[in-house]
Amino acid sequence: MGTAGTYRVEQERRMSMTESKNKAVAQLLESQLQNWEQARGNYEALASVLVKECKVGPYTYRIQFNPARMVSSGAKVDAKTISQRKCFLCAANRPAVQQEVPFGTHYSLLTNPFPIFPRHLTIPDKEHVDQRIEGRFGEMLQLAEALSDYTIFYNGPRCGASAPDHQHFQAGSRGFMPIETEWKEQGKHMVTRQGAATLWQLDDPVRSTFVLESGKAADAETLFSTVYQSLPVKEGETEPMMNLLALYDTDKWVIFIFPRDKHRPSCYFAEGEAKLLSSPASVDMGGVFITPVEADFHKITAAHIQQILEEVCLPSTEMDKVAQRIRQANEPKVQVGILSAPSIEFAFSTPYQQEGQPVSGKQKAAFADGQIEWNGKRYDELLFAPLSPDTDSFELTDVVIGINFHWERKENQRFQGALKLIVDNGKLTAVNVIHVEDYLTSVISSEMSATASAELLKAHAVISRSWLLAQLRNTNKQTLPAGETAYTATDEEQIRWYDREDHTLFDVCADDHCQRYQGITRASTPQVREAIEATRGETLMSGNTICDARFSKCCGGAFEEFQYCWEDVKHPYLLKQRDWKADMTLPDLTQEDQAEQWIRTTPDAFCNTTDKQILSQVLNNYDQETTDFYRWKVSYTQEELSELIHRRSGIDFGQILDMIPVARGTSARLWKLKIVGTKRTLTIGKELEIRRILSPSHLYSSAFVIDKEEVSSEGIPGRFTLTGAGWGHGVGLCQIGAAVMGEQGYSYQEILLHYYIGATIEKLY
Hints:
By secondary structure, the chain is an alpha+beta fold. It is built from 21 helices and 37 strands. Among the domains are: 3-49 and 56-186, HIT family, subunit A; 552-733, no CATH class.
């Protein structure tokens, strides 16, 4: 059976279970109202309860005069009172007439004899254990899915629970509370996302509310656990104060989380005219205020409700702090491979910790017999953790940057976060373990000038984050030789493409092979930090998939597609398009005649600029050593070219007779090139392999045409001149084009959706 079939069977099973449980509960209620006089009387009284409505901000509140609820609103829940009464939720103490429907192994479904809803259930645990949601949230989700006609709710032990000594939920008629429907139409913002689960914060300064949506129970549980751990716990309490509502809507759960600051408002304890017997619980938080005293019903106004909610709910300033803690807790860490060498020198300016012991000052570790030798001992792996992650840092000596590029050099670099040393391919590798947002601060400062425009910095923050998170979520890493991710060879053709899947012992490297990362070595301006914070967690999405958001320096006027540079996969958001205004068409640059005309001219494009101010936004000091990139020329003598190709490929072609374009991508970049020599003829690819073989470091781009010059009578050219377009692979965002767009007034969202066609921008944490 296929995936779709399996899903359908599971859905049918769930629907059958739900129908069965709802039917059993309906029969229970019918039987209890026939046979239980007290319950029948209270349910019949619901038809005549007084109800009025008011608005607090954009939200509706119904005020219900319900004298039967005095048993809950007026309940004493102090420890002494609880210890002196029999627990009315324990089976031994319940009325003989009260029937139950079992739910799983833990719970009983009971008719609540003091109803608020037309259908009202109490759902106690079969064991007498304290009221606590930790470890029970999954059970609440099961109840919500099975009892689809109901909304399940939980009152914390000091948030309206009249039996704080006995674990229980309640359930009431679905759609009875205004917030169940109103929240969708009101202001909200995403706090974070965990798989299929999304956490929203409602823009309601009076009633502090998180809303958790999820199509998967496991993701909902994980995200709720993060929320739970992020909420404050008052001294003497066993868990954060909160009320919860949960419902199952077709194919997903919706959970309302109301963090609390107080159990009861001051009006509950007041005397005289100021007194209101209001003890808010889940139903009140959901928009149905219960007043068991008739005088209170007539007296209470929207102003009273606002005052009560402001008093008992977690203040908005504290909610914002909780939301920040949730985002930070849900923010992933990345392991960045920085340096590989037989020995590594490093230094801690402030004490770090290794297996609980402080370490500071200059250190040296060396590879020895397959292990790490440090301080006279051997290790398989070493981890040095900062004592103060926000301020502590370490230094690595002789870090190589620009590997195999014309600007390759060594420098000492500083890093925040943890330092991990591992053994990799007969050497030591230094790995920096750092939070994603801290990593991005360095990437943005390293990839371009930290003084770039705000919109460019924001755009780059989003794509760098997206690319990284896409890599972190890649659970199918290939295990291939270092530096190689795909290689096919025949007598006529050698095709090799390079990507980041070669990193199996860490997530990404620190060089241009992944993203240029130099820790805190490069100055980070307030503008960079503001761009990171302004877009915190924002990620490019294609449906439910994080976009593999590639970028390069200069596309040369046209976007390349992914499959011509890496594996043969066509991403819907990495498509061919001209780097210009939307109404401008792009020639078919896979055709040689059109590619040649394109490369030999300088058509209008965002990235066609020589403006030094704009270029300085993208190009760091060593990048500015390169001046020609939109269109460029490289010339080789026969001797230079034949020697270069021999050295870079390891193949002796003899003298080079010709270089013939075989296949081009959508930006005119060659991904197959035939090299014809006096000793050997071979087609090479893909894009980066061509660039590597035809340059001492990397050719700017594989979008070039070839001119043979000084051809001898034997047909051997004396010189080859390459005329090219662009710098880099040309896939995704063009940094120089994006810089121009920013200067022309485009927002970072517009810039991103220009380069990533059909994508959306979503906040994941």
